[in-house]
Each structure stands twice: as C-alpha cells, then as structure tokens.
Specification:
The complex is a heterodimer of chains A (266) and B (129). The longest helix of chain A is centred in the last third of the chain and has 29 residues. Chain A has two domains: 34 residues; 229 residues, no CATH class. With 266 residues, chain A is an all-alpha fold. In chain A, 66% of the residues lie in helices and 2% in strands. Chain B is mainly α and 129 residues long. Chain B has a single domain, classed as Helix Hairpins. Helix content of chain B is 74%, strand content 0%. Chain B is elongated and about 70 Å long. The chains are: A mainly alpha (266), B mainly alpha (129). At the A-B interface, α1, α2, α3, α4 and α6 of A face α1, α3 and α4 of B.
C-alpha cells in the first residue's frame, strides 16, 4: 500500500469519527427521539383536518400532502431538475436512429410467458400506487419507478426492438413525457386560470379554498376522497416518470456499434 | 439497554460505516464507474440518515407511518395521530431526492459511457496522461 493511499484512508477514518462525534454531541439528540419537531406536528395536524379547512390539505397521506401541496413549488422545481438530467442524457445520443427492424432473439419461452403475465400486473399495481397516493403510502414518483420495471422486463426478455414494435417509439415516449410535465404545469395554474376567468383571486399551486381565494379542487365526491390536486399531480407525475425512465433505458440498450458510428465517428 | 435504543445505535453505526466506504470509493478508487457507485452509496446513506432523524419512538405505543388511517375525524384521533406518527418531512424530501438522484446518476452513467467511447478507459490515472 502506498503512502498516499494510507493518508487517504486515515483522513477518511478521522473525518468519519469527527462527524460521528459532532452529530452525537448536538445533532441527533436522544435516540430514537420521543417527539418530532413542531413543524412536523403542524404538517401532521393539517394533513386532514376538517376543523381547519383553509389550512389543511385534501388527503390522508402526509408525505403526499407535503410533496404536492404544502411544498408543491419545491417539488415542481425538483421535477424540473429530473427533466433536465434526462434531457442532458438524451442529448448525448442525438442523431442515433432507433428502429424496430431486424431479428430479436430474446429469452426462453418460460421467461417470455411469465413476462407476458407480469407486464399486465405491474402497470396495474403502479396505477393503484399512483391513484391511491393521497390515501395510502405511494404517489407518482413511486408508481413511475414501479411501471418502469415493465420496460426493463420487455427489453431484457423480448429484446429492445420489441418495445418499438409495440408502438413505443422514441418520439412517442418523448410526447408522453412532455404531456406529463404539461399536465403538472397545467394543474399548478388551473385554479389561477379559472379565477382570472371568473374575476376572483387564486394562487399558483392552490389546492383547497383559502381566505379571499374561494376556488378549490374537489376534495370529496359521493363519499369518496378525491384528494383535490394531489390526485392529478400524482397521475401526471406517474406518466412523466415512467416515460422518462423508459426512454433512458431504451437508449442504454442500443447496439454499441450503432451509437459509436454517430456519437464518436461523425 | 432496550431493544429500540440498540437498534438505533446499530443503524447509526452502519450509516457511518457506509459513509466511510462511499468516501473511500469517491477519493481513492481510480475507476469512474466505482466512483459513481460510491456516489450512489453516499446519497443513499444521506437519505437513510434524513429518515432516521425524522423517526420517533413515542412514550406509549409504537410509532405509526405518517398516514391518517381513521375514517372518522375528531380531536382524539387527531391527537393520537400527531403524537404517534413519524416526521413526514424528511420522507417527502428523500422521496424526491431518490428520483432526482436516479436521474442524475443516469446522466453521469451516460457521460462515463461516452468518456469510455472517446478515450477507451474509465481509469482517471490513465486519462490524465
């Protein structure tokens, strides 16, 4: 082992021990904590609170309420970062043609049959995670990640060309992804547009009626909790995340020689 | 020492060990792929740490997930929820951090692949020459 490697190793160990000491001194406090912070208590109290309709959100799930209502603007910009990263990754592959022509080999009939069954079941589970995200643990991000497994399975078991032959071309997936993002943007300003038309006041990312802003997304319909804008945000995020990751996986599975011809030699 | 305290210590110590492994991978390993793996370990450690900070073990009963599970609403059920549910804020932040982290990881992976195509190596020592 070289002297420089020993130095790096010792530095890391010293750093970790000092960090552990500092956080145990004043950062973490008692472990595990008995109480949560006051801010967390307010979030928990206002997630579903018919006694404070102007301040509360519209679902049972506090995490989704924070992600898309209390701190909705944060999530919007975080989603923008997610799109930026995927667009940057796609930009490297600009000019590479993705076609479904040619032979595919794929895996054995056993793997194919099992996959045919599971590619129906997985989107069902994903849809339930997305559409139930305001009531039970889940939401658009998680559902999108689950649904992407379908793309992975199709690419691995049937081959990359099979996904294109099913009609999911690069431009169509891009369109789906853009529709998801547009949906999120539209839901964020929907009440504002309606308020301008009706001549009343409203806010960006408004979910439920507020003082001096009487418009709101439907919270309950026929005894069923709809979740207001949370349901729409989860649905559009589900579409956007699924399409984004499917596209990236499609690009990662391309033939190396096809890509090299465009991105290196040209 | 009770079980919950012992579990918390085991989790915290494992997180610090993970942090050490991740930092070693980032600083000392020459391969870009191993650096990327180390970055993902680092981000997952940070996420797990954030969730741990928001965890709680109430004096009575057991901790509950931050989901209001009562179909009826009154002051008692709300008080029980507020005093037993864990902190939802770190979970909300970690949720978006994971997805964005995945997107950024994919972007870095694409760059490493492209780097390999252009230079024929992912070893930073060879690339310096």
């Amino acid at each position: 082992m070289k002297a420089s490697e020993v130095f790096v190793l010792i530095s890391i160990i010293v750093f970790i021990f000092s960090l552990a000491y500092i956080t145990s001194l004043g950062g973490l406090g008692q472990l595990p904590p008995v109480n949560v912070r006051v801010l967390a208590q307010r979030y928990l109290e206002l997630t579903w609170n018919p006694l404070k309709p102007f301040m509360s959100s519209s679902g049972y799930e506090s995490v989704t309420a924070i992600v898309w209502d209390f701190r909705g603007l944060d999530t919007f910009f975080e989603t923008a970062v997610f799109y930026g990263a995927i667009i940057a990754a796609i930009a490297i592959y600009r000019g590479v043609k993705i076609t479904g022509k040619g032979k595919t080999i794929g895996m054995s009939p056993i793997a194919r049959t099992i996959t045919r069954l599971s590619i129906v079941l997985i989107p069902t589970v994903a849809a339930s995670i997305a559409l139930h995200g305001h009531l039970t643990p889940g939401g658009g991000f998680q559902a999108g990640s689950v649904a992407t497994v379908v793309a992975v399975l199709i690419i691995m078991v049937f081959g990359r060309k099979a996904i294109i032959r099913k009609g999911l071309t690069k431009s169509r997936i891009l369109l789906l992804r853009s529709l998801g993002l547009l949906g999120i943007g539209f839901t964020a300003v929907a009440l504002l547009l309606a308020a301008i038309a009706l001549g009343v006041n409203a806010y960006i990312f408004q979910n439920q009626p507020k003082p001096f802003a009487p418009l709101g997304f439907p919270k309950i319909y026929d005894g069923m909790i709809l979740g207001g804008s949370l349901l729409l945000f989860n649905f559009f995020e589900f579409i956007a995340v699924t399409a984004g990751f499917t596209l990236v996986l499609l690009l990662l599975s391309l033939d190396e020689k096809d890509v090299r011809r465009v991105v290196v030699e040209k | 020492m009770n079980l919950s305290l012992m579990t918390a210590y085991v989790v915290v110590i494992s997180l610090y060990v993970n942090l050490g492994i991740a930092l070693y991978g980032i600083f000392a390993r020459p391969s870009l792929v191993k650096k990327l793996l180390a970055i993902t370990i680092l981000s997952d450690t940070a996420n797990a740490f954030a969730v741990l900070v928001g965890y709680r073990w109430p004096k009575t009963g057991t901790p509950k997930p931050p989901v209001y599970t009562n179909s009826t609403f009154n002051n008692q059920t709300l008080h029980y929820y507020v005093t037993h549910a864990v902190d939802p804020l770190p979970q909300a932040l970690v949720l978006t951090a994971i997805v964005i982290g995945l997107a950024v990881t994919i972007f870095i992976a694409f760059i490493i692949i492209q780097y390999y195509r252009l230079h024929g190596t992912v070893d930073v020592r060879k690339a310096r020459r």
